[in-house]
Amino acid sequence: MPDSRVLPAPSEVLSTPRSDTPDTVLDGVDWPGPTLLLAAVLILAWTVSGAADGRLLGGSLATLVTLLTGLVWITLEHLRFRARDRVGR
């Protein structure tokens, strides 16, 4: 019985073709959604810090639009990944 702690030779690893590549952690991450949520938090901080300067209405609208866009983007990507996984089965 071979020792399971022994690694295969590099030539064996390179010569073994893989028909499918495994998913990594970052394959399922869609960067525009989280980026938009981060932008919404930054815009909110900018709005709150400058509320006395008259930035309250514009900053609030920008925060709301950015936040909703980020949430919708993440929701649509989640649904797309779930549909892709269902089709793959």
Coarse morphology: elongated
Uncertain segments: none
- Give Rg in angstroms: 23 Å
Structural class category: mainly alpha
Would you kindly provide a written description of the structure presented here, covering whatever features stand out?
It contains three helices and no strands. The protein is an all-alpha fold and about 90 residues long. The chain has a domain at about 30-89. Helix 2 runs antiparallel to helix 3 (about 55-89). The longest helix has about 35 residues, at about 55-89.
Descriptive key words:
89 residues
Give a topology summary.
Blueprint: H1 10-15, H2 32-49, H3 56-88
Helix pairs in contact: 2-3
Keywords: Membrane, Transmembrane, Transmembrane helix
Protein name: DUF2530 domain-containing protein
Organism: Nocardia yunnanensis
Brief rundown of the structure:
The chain has helices at residues 10-15, 32-49, 56-88. By secondary structure, it is an all-alpha fold. Helix 2 (32-49) packs antiparallel against helix 3.
